[in-house]
Automatic annotation (TrEMBL):
Species lineage: Bacteria, Bacillati, Actinomycetota, Actinomycetes, Pseudonocardiales
GO MF annotation list: oxidoreductase activity
Chain ranges of the ER-bound oxygenase mpaB/mpaB'/Rubber oxygenase catalytic domain: 29-262
Taxonomic source organism: Tamaricihabitans halophyticus
Pfam families with a match to the protein in the record: MPAB_Lcp_cat
Name of the protein this chain belongs to: Uncharacterized protein (DUF2236 family)
Length: 293
């Protein structure tokens, strides 16, 4: 296989079943099922769609434009299942991988893409890990460098569970941050799908499946404006600039105050409110709560 063929190949590794993904007692067990991570999902989604091959795959193969909320509400629990379906997390990971085997095609210039190409699939994983880390670090109190390193090492186990080549995966947390910043600075662009997501942020979708339509109709524009402002606050500055989002020093001060306020209240919420159904099911099955006991 040539280098160019490898770049667009599936990158599937045959030994995924032998990988052990994080389970009870891990930092993923503590943090990855927190509802608060949803605050960071626009950040993760936008960064994904700005990678040209990933954005093109969504454009060609996804129902994201017609059912954006439904797609998020289907996808996130599955990803959480890699941790919380313990001890069968690797099986869940491989199911997720299989959903992507047929997502392939060509860019307008004729260059081929494949969702399971390591550069593409790992970037999607990296944005989800980054979202969990950013929420935890921003709203629940700064993680120690040791915890960040552990959290990252666990995320590497998760990625290996998918059975996709890990040849581009950074070896440690510091390298991951360098990789992440480099991709943001040099590879991401305002693709058609990313532009559509920005437009959805400014003009929210007509439906939200978790609310009755009359109620959502009342809340849609005022709540959408606030949620988009929060989403812009979560973005790396270089990405704000690239999508043309304004962000003033006053916005930053307000955002930091909001983060501190949420950080004081969020840890006090009961588990039934704070953690997602997939996470709570894992806690019950394992007999181990988020704190590892």
């Amino acid at each position: 296989m040539t280098t160019s063929e490898h770049a667009v190949g599936s990158g599937i590794e045959p030994a995924a079943a032998e990988v052990t993904v994080p389970g009870p007692g891990s930092l993923h067990w503590r943090y990855a099922g927190d509802h608060g991570i949803y605050v960071m999902l626009v950040r993760a989604g936008l960064l994904q769609l700005m990678l040209p091959d990933l954005g093109r795959g969504v454009q060609d193969h996804s129902d994201f434009f017609s059912e954006p909320w439904e797609r998020v509400l289907r996808s996130v629990p599955q990803i959480q299942g890699v941790t919380f379906d313990w001890p069968n997390g690797t099986r869940t990971a491989r199911m997720i991988r299989e959903y992507h085997t047929g997502i392939k095609g060509a860019q307008p210039d004729g260059r081929r893409y494949h969702a399971l190409a390591p550069e593409t699939y790992y970037w999607a994983h990296a944005t989800i890990f980054d979202a969990a880390l950013q929420f935890t670090d921003t709203f629940l109190g700064a993680l120690s460098e040791k915890d960040k390193e552990t959290f990252y090492a666990e995320s590497c186990q998760v990625f290996r569970g998918y059975g996709v080549s890990d040849r581009i995966m950074p070896p440690d947390y510091r390298s991951f941050r360098e990789y992440f910043d480099q991709v943001c600075a040099e590879q991401l662009e305002l693709t058609p799908t990313a532009k559509a997501l920005v437009q959805m942020g400014e003009e929210p979708p007509e439906r939200f499946p978790l609310l009755p339509q009359p109620l959502y109709r009342l809340l849609r524009k005022p709540s959408g404006k606030v949620l988009w402002w929060v989403a812009v606050g979560t973005l790396p500055p270089v990405i704000r600039d690239r999508i043309g989002a304004s962000w003033s020093p006053r916005d930053e001060r307000r955002y930091q105050r909001m983060c501190r306020s949420i950080g004081r209240v969020w840890p006090l919420l009961p588990s039934a409110v704070r953690y997602t159904p997939r996470a709570r099911a894992g806690f019950r099955r394992a007999g181990v709560g988020p704190a590892g006991c």
